[in-house]
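REVIEWER CHECKLIST
Item 1: Sequence provided? yes
Item 2: Single chain? yes
Item 3: Sequence as submitted:
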Amino acid sequence: MTTDLSYEETAKSITTDRGVLRYHEAGDGPPLLLLHGSGPGVTGWRNYRGVLADLAGHFRCLVLEFPGFGVSDPCKGHPMAMARHAVTDFLDALGIDRVSIIGNSMGGIVGTQFAIAEPDRVHKLVTIGGAGRSVFAPSPGEGIRLLMEFTDDPTREKLVRWLRSMVYDPAVITDELIQERWELATDPETLEIARRMYSTAAFEAGTRAALASTDTPYWAQLGKITAPTLITWGRDDRVSPVDMAMLPMRELRNGELHVFPNCGHWTMIEARDAWLDAVLAFLNRKDA
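Item 4: Structure as written out by the authors:
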C-alpha cells in the first residue's frame, strides 16, 4: 500500500561545481532518476508527486530539479544544455555509477542524450513523450507554439491555454494548478531563463543553428543506446504528437512502445495507474 510523501520530507540538496542542485529522494533499492519536462512553472516535484510514492516502494527515487527552472541554482547557458550537464554532475556527486532513468518530455530527451553519451551508466530508460522526431505532424506542435506565445508575452490567459494543450481532459487543469504554475512561471529570473529556450526569437535561432550544424542530432544516434528502453506516449498528445515515436521504435536496439488512449502529454498524470503498471512491470522485469 502506497503512502503519501510530502515535499518537505523528501527535499534535499547537493553542491556541485556548477552550483547547488536540489532534488527529492524517497524509497530504497536500485537508484531511479526522474527527470522533469520544461514549460512555465514546471518542477520535478510537480511532474512526479502523484507517482513518487508508488515508485519509491521499489526504488531509491531521485527527482532532480534542473537548473534554470526556479528550484536549483540558475544556469548561465541554454537550459537544455545545462540539464544534460546536471545529470552527470548530480550522479557523480552522489557517487552513483549506474542508474535507471524516467524522463518526461525534455527530461526524456536529456535522459536519452545521457544514455547515448554514457551507455554503461544507464540500466533502463523510460521516456514520456517528446523523445523522437516528427514524421507526419507539423513541427513545432500546437503545445510548443502556445508555450512560445506565453514566453513572449506571459499572461494568465496564455498560461491556461498552454496548460490545457498538455492534457486530454481539461478538468486536470485546476485553479490550484494554474496558480502554482503562474507564481513560478512569472518569477523574473525563471522567465528570463525560459526565454533563452522558448521565446520565438530563441526558438527560431535554435532551429537555424540546428540546420547549419554538422553535429549529429541525438535522434539520429538512438542506435547507440544499449539500455532496454520503454517509450510511453499519450495518444492525444498535442505537444509532441505520437508519430514522433516511430523513429525511436525503428532505431532502438531494445525498445518497446506503450501508447495510452484518452491521454495528452502528461501520461504519468492522466493515465497514472495504467502508466505505473506498465513502467513498474518494465523496470522490475528481470529479462528486459
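Item 5: Key structural point noted by reviewer: The first helix runs from residue 7 to 10.
Item 6: Recommendation: ____
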